[in-house]
């Protein structure tokens, strides 16, 4: 059920710490254990030291003992699609299959659903190191 994933991303977005850009982002991942882990972006006055919402959600998932993502939701405001940045696409890749659904949402709900392979074609992953 994707609605619970969207609700978790929406709630996380409401907690974002974005005093500099004013651009709040929330993310939620559903792990293979069925549990949802969420995160929000956290800015820092030393700009490159901020944390993306997707990275925060993945860290919460790993901290809870899960290591496989089954579904992702990323939510931001505005008219443009708020997709994961390049670094977060790679972070998602570490724990997700190419066919993993990534729901790009606004506060109203899903704007587009894509797959990790569509967002990060010809990606480098753990199997490349074997």
TrEMBL record:
It is an enzyme of class 3 (hydrolase). Keywords: Hydrolase, Metal-binding, Zinc. It comes from Denitrobaculum tricleocarpae. This is Cytidine deaminase. One of its GO terms (biological process) is pyrimidine-containing compound metabolic process. The active site is at 54 (proton donor). Belongs to the cytidine and deoxycytidylate deaminase family. Its cofactor is Zn(2+). It comes from the Bacteria. Residues 1-127 form the CMP/dCMP-type deaminase domain. Zn(2+) binds at residues 52, 85, 88. InterPro entries: APOBEC/CMP_deaminase_Zn-bd, CMP_dCMP_dom, Cyt/Deoxycyt_deaminase, Cyt_deam_tetra, Cytidine_deaminase-like.
């Amino acid at each position: 059920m994707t609605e619970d994933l969207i609700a978790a991303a929406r709630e996380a977005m409401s907690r974002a710490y974005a005093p500099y850009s004013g651009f709040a982002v929330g993310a939620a991942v559903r792990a293979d254990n069925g549990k949802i882990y969420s995160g929000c972006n956290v800015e820092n006055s030393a700009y490159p030291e901020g944390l993306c919402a997707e990275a925060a959600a993945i860290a919460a998932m790993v901290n809870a003992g899960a290591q496989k993502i089954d579904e992702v939701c990323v939510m931001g405001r505005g008219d443009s699609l708020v997709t994961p940045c390049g670094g977060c696409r790679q972070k998602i890749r570490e724990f997700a299959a190419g066919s993993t659904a990534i729901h790009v949402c606004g506060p109203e709900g899903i704007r587009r659903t894509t797959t990790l392979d569509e967002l990060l074609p010809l990606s480098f992953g753990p199997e490349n190191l074997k």
